[in-house]
Amino acid sequence: MESLALTSVTFCEVDFGIHNYKDFSFFGHQVYITSTHIAIGIVMAIILIFAIAANIAIRRADPEKAPTGFLNVVEFMVQAIDNMAEGGMGAEHGGRYANYLGSLFMFLVVSNLSGLLGLRPPTADYGTTFALAIITFVLIHYAGFKYQKLKHITSLFDPILLSPINIIGEIATPISMSLRLFGNILSGTVLMGLIYGLIPKILTIAWPGVLHIYFDIFSGCIQAYVFVMLTMVFISQNFETEE
Fold first, then answer.
1. CA 60 to centroid of chain Cα atoms
2. With bands split at pLDDT 50, 70 and 90, how would you rate the model's confidence at 136?
3. d(C-alpha 131, C-alpha 117), whole Å
4. Structural domain of residue 113, as residue ranges?
5. Distance from first CA to last CA of the chain, Å, rounded?
6. Tell me: the pLDDT tens digits for 60-97?
7. How confident is the model at residue 204 (pLDDT cuts 50, 70, 90)?
8. Would residue 31 count as lying in a domain?
């Protein structure tokens, strides 16, 4: 009995960052404000502040002088996003999707790195990753109808015997994309929660920092890049048969 009591106390100290801060009624439904909503708000505030600061820096810049300091960082980011979009989707189409790809990449990177601030990453919640995958899914089929017209639909039934597999493959695209990102970020969040909850408090001062470098920085940036790359690949597949 004593061992069971100790076990229950130990597990009570493990915190995976899932908290409900407030609930209210909305059109007859109970709505909850959780740690994920708060983390998303903080992430969006960080991106918004950065965007406003970048806008001010660009407006005040002298076009006849070489950019320095913060403006150099902004220019590097814009060029990197443009090069990534054009490299993955071609010079003709990359510029049209650069804004979405850049916004998506920034949101994913900041969200995945938010664990360094003591937040639960929004991407550790499937509701976040699935919503992003649905937006990509809509853009995929928008490009399909724009460039392939009716062939975008008829190709699913060619050959007719494989049509069920083709349809399932289309439906599986947002599910697989969202689950890949969600699973990788959640696994890191769970492992860090276990480490902080189970090891002696004195060891949490420095030792988990090494794991944060991998789970939050390395893995977080890699997963953001993979999600954006998959977005470009799936959308650009519809450019090949333009007639």
1. 32
2. very high
3. 24
4. 2-18+68-239
5. 74
6. 888 888 777 888 899 999 999 999 999 888 888 888 89
7. low
8. no
The pTM for the full model equals: 0.84
- Please report whether residue 189 resides in a domain: yes
The answer to whether residue 60 is domain-embedded is no
Going from the C-alpha of 233 to that of each of 30, 132, 143, 150, 228, the distances in angstroms are 39, 16, 12, 21, 9
Q: Is 150 helix (H, G, I), strand (E, B) or coil?
A: coil
**What's the Rg (C-alpha) of the chain?**
22
d(CA 95, CA 93): 6
In the chain, the amino acid numbered 62 is: D
53 domain-assigned: no
Band (pLDDT 50/70/90 cuts) for residue 22 is: confident
| β-sheet bridge partners, residue 29 | 26
Q: C-alpha angle 197/202/205, rounded to 5°?
A: 85
Helix (H) or strand (E) holding 23: strand 20-26
If one counts the domains in the chain, the total is: 1
**Residue 19: how many CA atoms within 13 Å on its side-chain side?**
10
Specify the pLDDT at position 109. 95
